[in-house]
Structure formats: structure tokens, C-alpha cells
Amino acid sequence: MKTRVEFKSDKFPPYPGEEADINPGLWGKRLAEYLQERLLLHGFKVTAVGAEDWGWTVELENPEFPLWIGCGHQYDQPHDFLCFIEPSRPFVRRWFKKIATGAQVNQVAEALRQILEADPDIHDLRWS
């Protein structure tokens, strides 16, 4: 499963004071809001957008297991961004059960691919 994409863009500058919510030199709230808006158009319900010390999370409604996209700017590269989907493994364990994640994760990855590729201000996508 390809769950990580790096790309370049000038579209997501930091908000003033955003670094107070996460670590200095990092940002990505505009990117998280952008994804929130566009994921809705692809049929995903976003339940929350939140700050972490490394960037921002876009949490998706998924009753079987936690499903989210982490995103943000990468250190020392003002136009480089990263998004990653969690879980990134084909299975998770929950209450002694092994739950397959592939179908949901692949749907999110496909929506993310379509969103990013459709925007002319986003370029140099690299999936892994």
C-alpha cells in the first residue's frame, strides 16, 4: 500500500502564530483545511482536524478502526509537504481481532491522489 506522498507547493503558507500549536519551523494547518474541504467532495466525513507536535491530523469517520491523514511542511524546505495515511499497515488489531485496513486506506489514498494531482499549484508528487 502506498500511504505516503511528498510534494511541492507554494499554496500552504503558515498562519501567523501557527508554530505555537506545533513545533517551531513546522506548519500545515492550511493543508489540513484544504484536505478537509476536498475529502468531503470525495465522500469522506472528516470528524476532526487537530494539531500534533509534528504537524496536523485530518481524522476520518471510520467505525472499524481509527483512520486519519497526517500532513505538514517538512523541515528546512519551505515548499515541501508530506501527507501520510494511518494506519499504514494492511492489518490492525482491535479487541483481539485482526482487521484488514487495505480497502479503506486505498480509498483514502486514491482520493488524496486525485485531489493533489488535480491542483495545478501542487507538483512533484512522490508516493511511497
Task: List the total number of helices.
Answer: 2
Largest sheet: 6 strands, antiparallel
Question: What is the global morphology?
Answer: globular
Question: What is the terminal separation in angstroms?
Answer: 8 Å
Strand order of the largest sheet: 2-3-4-5-1-8
Uncertain segments are none
Mean pLDDT: 91
- Element-level helix/strand string: EHEEEEEEHE
CATH topology: TATA-Binding Protein
Q: What share of residues are in beta strands? A: 35-45%
Q: How many strand segments?
A: 8
- The number of distinct structural domains comes to 1
Computed CA radius of gyration, to the nearest angstrom: 14 Å
Instruction: Give the class-level CATH name.
Output: Alpha Beta
- Under the CATH scheme, which architecture would be assigned? 2-Layer Sandwich
Helicity level: 10-25%
Kindly name the structural category.
alpha+beta
Q: Any descriptors?
A:
128 residues, alpha+beta, TATA-Binding Protein, 6-stranded antiparallel sheet, two-stranded antiparallel ribbon, 2 helices, 8 strands
What would you say this structure looks like, in words?
With about 130 residues, the protein is of the alpha+beta class. The protein has a single domain, classed as TATA-Binding Protein, CATH 3.30.310. Helix content is about 25%, strand content about 40%. The strands form 2 sheets. Strands 2-3-4-5-1-8 form a 6-stranded antiparallel beta sheet, with helices on one face. Strand 3 and strand 4 form a beta hairpin. The longest helix has 17 residues. The mean pLDDT is about 90.
